[in-house]
Amino acid sequence: MGNLVINWLLSSLSLVIVAYVIPGLEVKGFVAALIAPVVIGLVNATVGFIIKILTLPLSLLTFGLFLLVINALMLELAAFLVPGFSVNGFFSAFFGAIALSLVSTLLRHLLRA
User: What φ, ψ does residue 55 adopt, rounded to 5°?
Assistant: First the structure.
């Protein structure tokens, strides 16, 4: 249970850092920063999973690069669902999804070191 809370807080911190760095991503408030990672995870686990299965041939054809597009769309969907979290445009979502993954991985690695 403690590990889940730590991962949740790290995801929230990652989102705040990425929103600060990437223009077009905005997190308004502490509550939005805590809710958005949960919604992002749920969207990726449900809708994202189904879309990734349906577009598997295209993902294979593009050597996995199409997965970046899917992740950007899932980030936009999560922003639509969470008040106080906004993504302005596809490219903000695209680079935000990449940065979110990198920052989250870096923070988790630093915590374990």
Answer: -105, 20
In three state form, how does the secondary structure of 64-102 look?
A: CCHHHHHHHHHHHHHHHHCCCEEECCHHHHHHHHHHHHH
pTM of the model: 0.91
Pairwise CA distance, residues 58 & 63, whole Å:
8
45, 51, 52, 56: CA torsion to nearest 10: 160
What Cα–Cα distance (Å) separates residue 64 from each residue in 34, 55, 69, 84?
Answer: 30, 10, 10, 31
Per-residue pLDDT of the chain (113 residues; tens, 9 = 90+): 778 899 999 999 999 999 999 999 999 999 999 999 999 999 999 999 999 999 999 999 999 999 999 999 999 999 999 999 999 999 999 999 999 999 999 999 998 86
